[in-house]
Amino acid sequence: MSERLVSVALPVALDRGFTYAVPASWPSVPEPGARVLVPFANRGLVGVVRAAQPERLNGARIKLLEEVLDPPGAPSLTPELARLCEWVADYYVAPVGEVYRLALPGLLTGHDVRRVMLSEAGAQALAAAREVVLQPVDDAGLPTAAEQRVLAALAAAPRGELAVERLIDLRPRIPGVLRLIGDLAAKELCTISWDEAGGEGARVEAHYRRTDYLRGAATAEETLREHIGRSKQRRALLDLLEGAGSWVPAGELRGPFPGYKKLLEPLLAAGLVAVEERLRALDPFAAETLEPSLPQTPTADQAAALATLRGDLEAGKFAASLLHGVTGSGKTEVYLQLIADARARGGGAIVLVPEIALTPQLSDRFRARFGETVAVLHSGLTPRQRLDAWQQIRMGARPIVIGARSAVFAPVPDLKVIVVDEEHDASFKQEEGVRYSARDVALVRARDASAVAVLGSATPALETYESARSGKIRWLRMTTRPTTRPLPEVELISLATHRPDPETLLTGRMRTALVETVAAGEQAIVFLNRRGFATTLICDRCGALHHCPDCSAPAMTYHLGRNRLMCHWCGFIEAPPERCVECGEGELLHGNAGTERVELALAKDVPGARVLRLDRDTSRGKGLLETLAQFRRREADILVGTQMLSKGHDFPGVTLVGILQGDHGLGLPDIRASERTFQLLTQVAGRAGRGDRPGRVLIQAYGIKNPAIAFAAEHDFEAFAAWELDKRRELHNPPFGHLALVRISGPDQVAVQRRAEELAAVIRAAAEEVRRKHAEEPGSAEAPPPVQLLGPKASLIERVNRRVRWQMLIRASSRPPLRWLLRQLRPRLGDAGSGEFKTMANVDVDPQSLI
DNA sequence: AGCACGCCGACT
DNA sequence: GTCGGCGTGCTC
Ligand SMILES: [Zn+2]
Ligand SMILES: [Zn+2]
Predict the structure, then answer these.
(1) Which pLDDT band holds residue A137 (cuts at 50, 70, 90)?
(2) How far apart are CA A831 and CA A556, in angstroms?
(3) Which residue, of A94, A97, A323, A820, has the fewest CB within 10 Å?
(4) Is A583 annotated as a binding residue?
């Protein structure tokens, strides 16, 4: 029989899989997605069997798999997810190990999981060796001095056992411990086992519930008292359980009733209380019982969309749809009812929402409808909580998953629905490490799982919109809103003609509107762009802006609250210097923070207005939720804030929304600047209005004629899209062209530039090959070259964190040549050179921003 | 990413 | 003399 080989993804930052042999004694080859323990550079690492052919290597000796950590037939990652990881690694040019790590909770992968235990023979050998020191004899076969140190460390540990990582951490260090452990194990002087974090499966906990026995009956009190006895504590405990109405985990009783077990005994015996081992509650929020919510009667639009989506679900084939519904058209109810349908068919669902929209209100909405079948994956989970959630999802106990970007990898079995809400949101693109787009990964996953994908938005990404328009995906429109309230009336105010106050950008028109609103007893929100209002320190002698020592960005941001300067690019924080660093003489002056300036001006100019401010300084910790709650309770009239207010929070009392500089983002040299501006304005404008009264929106801008602004004011997405798509088509930008941005960085400018040129040569050669093949096809003479290279050139901010950054853009007319070219480029990426001249190169496929 | 191995300064 | 600082090279 030929050697059975598997490729294993390991949590190391190396761009390849590792080939291992399956021991001959194993009856079968572990399946893709199964976790395996493998020897790797003297360590014992947990990896995942890849859904890919093992590469045959020349020379390097192939090691044996040590152990399969998952039960047969139940790999940690379903084969479907393993395939998805392979696709992501290939498409986004990312190391497989890193991709598989995205799909597993941190505790299931990573570090060395082995434990070493002193064996009987080891203890004897150690004792014998110690004898020898006193009475030298022939020491053949005795452990070496280094080995003795390891054995001694084990002997000193409780139960003669230590985690390998503790042995590594031991001070003073034992040189070559890992090799020594291997040697000792081979001589059977120690035995090796491993921690299977989560290997035991999902954790359970005792839960208690008040039964119906003797509940509420008027005659019961007498009998009840007999069972309870005279203990006030026992009575309180019973009351608590009765009030909870459902299963209460033991963990929640331990606090208020330290002796809860004893207290419960007679109650359990009498049948007043039932006990059951149930899955641990995922987090404190999840335990709260909510008023169950019933499906609402759909509007005509909702019903039509649902009918189509249910048809797709019934067909059991992959189908993708854009659910294009104006703000307030009730997209969430469509998701809820579609998911209910998927559940009725025994399937599961994933709902992806922008990070900022993953609020308790949103998860409550799903929990109220689907109860304990929902898992919410939010960023606040501890590693252990994340593992609990992951295991419960994997075993099918929580078939509905709500989460941000990374939830696209949730191991939901029998996935039937994937929803990407606010699909245009930039947070779905991971901007570090594996630079994947959760929206696009969701589509690929849905296709592979034959699931229904729904992309919801009022202002879809132009890629999505074009796919819908051209019929690549279905286009479901919802134009009516359940409320009778008309869309807000938007007024544009030109900053060019209205002469704003230079400090605050407030125009007379904006002030008047705010005065009117407050006088009418209503609330207003004023938005400003954080970056446009960033405070800087300027020298009163030479006029220089204080800038970061490690970056070439023009200025650092001054945070008044903590009296600190911060660099937006590298995160460097420093105290303001006494004197100007440039001339050494001038004093550094600053204004108030943007939000603060506006807050002060409004408090002065709007009579009787109570003004709240929300920015980085006031939103730290609990500040954000506290301020929002205050405003919602109508304890203030005006809320001044940055874009963090633009979604996820409802303000029912707001009738006026003011935007200080609507076209701020348009100045950036970025292909998506117009799109982002339009989306932001539309989103922000949607905040105005109450009950059935329309709100008012005031947008101040320098260029009010710009279509991104003008069409937003008219709530006309399609006109905006038509205009923007024309521009994109002309420039061969997405969705009509496909981009990959190559970034090169390193400490030395010359080395970075040279590396960039080298890579550019590789890309040009590959592009030329693509062009030659393309030219052979008939009718292609006039077409533009299928792949173009723009650059290399220095990035907009050339120096960040003492590293020089260069970039170049690959633009292709279609996907296949781009993917072919990236595969050619792949082996030349990563680190090169050493020391001072070390450079790093990577690719961002489908970049969001070209800066 | 770790970690071994190797080569130089500041401690017992 | 050893400890440990990081520079460099390797991991199936
Ligand atoms: Zn100066
Ligand atoms: Zn900086």
Answers:
(1) very low
(2) 30
(3) A820
(4) yes
Distance A801 CA to C10 C1' (A): 29
CA of A282 relative to ligand 1 center, distance in Å: 56
Q: Any atom of strand C under 7 A from CB of A329?
A: no
Through-space separation of residue A175 CA and nucleotide B7 C1' in angstroms? 16
Q: Distance of CA A705 to CAs A340, A662, A699, A709, Å?
A: 46, 12, 12, 7
Do A166 and A53 share a domain, yes or no? Answer: no
The answer on A513 and A467 residing in a single domain is no
Q: Which nucleotide's C1' is closest to A168 (Cα)? A: B3
Q: Which ligand is nearest to the CA of A579?
A: 1
Strand C within 7 A of A835 CB: yes
For chain B, which bases have at least one atom within 7 A of a protein Cβ? 1-5
Average pLDDT over residues A568-592: 87
- Spanning CA of A498 to C1' of B3, the rounded length in angstroms is 66
Per residue, what are the HEC states of A606-624? CCCCCEEEECCCCCCCCHH
Task: Give the CATH number, domain containing residue A23.
Answer: 3.40.1440.60
**Residue A45: inside a domain, yes or no?**
yes
Q: How many helices (H) and strands (E) does chain A have?
A: 25, 34
Residues with CB under 5 A from ligand 1 (ion): A 539, 541-542, 544, 580, 582-583, 586
Q: How far is CA A617 from the centre of its chain?
A: 24
Q: How far is the CA of A796 from the centre of ligand 2 (A)?
A: 14
Final residue belonging to a domain, choices A162, A194, A226: A194
Residues A584 and A695 in one domain: no
Domain shared by A780 and A639, yes or no: no
| Global pTM value | 0.90
Considering the domain architecture, whether residues A189 and A208 belong to the same structural domain is answered as no
Q: What is the mean pLDDT of chain A?
A: 88
Q: How confident is the model at residue A455 (pLDDT cuts 50, 70, 90)?
A: very high
User: For residues A431-456, b (16+ Cβ closer than 10 Å) or e, as one string?
Assistant: eeebbbbbbbbbbbbbebbebbbbbb
Nucleotide nearest the Cα atom of A60 (by C1'): C12
C-alpha to C-alpha distance for A179 and A168, rounded to whole angstroms: 11
Highest mean pLDDT among A151-155, A264-268, A440-444, A812-816: A440-444
The number of domains in chain A is 7
Phi, psi of A393, deg, nearest 5: -65, -45
- The pairs formed by A436-440 with CB atoms below 8 angstroms and a separation of 24 or more are A436/A88, A436/A92, A436/A94, A436/A102, A437/A846, A438/A352, A438/A404, A438/A405, A438/A406, A438/A407, A438/A408, A439/A352, A439/A464, A440/A846
Say whether A85 counts as a known binding-site residue: no
* Nucleotide nearest A11, from its CA to each C1': B1
pLDDT tens per residue, range A10-44: 988 888 899 999 999 999 999 999 999 999 988 88
Same domain, A247 and A340: no
CATH of the domain at A394: 3.40.50.300
Residue range of the domain that includes A164 = 114-194
The integer distance in angstroms from the CA atom of A186 to the C1' atom of B6 is 28
A484 lies in a domain? no
pLDDT in tens, A198-254: 556 777 888 989 888 877 766 677 787 887 788 888 888 888 888 887 888 888 888
The residue from A700, A730, A760 where one domain ends is: A730
Question: Are residues A824 and A712 both part of a single domain?
Answer: no
CATH for A788:
3.30.70.600
* A608 plus A676 within the same structural domain: yes
Nearest residue (CA) to C1' of C2: A172
Q: What pLDDT score was predicted for residue A839?
A: 93
User: Nearest nucleotide to A38 by CA–C1' distance?
Assistant: C12
Q: What is the pLDDT of residue A59?
A: 67
- CA A580 to ligand 1 center in whole angstroms: 4
Q: Is A548 annotated as a binding residue?
A: yes
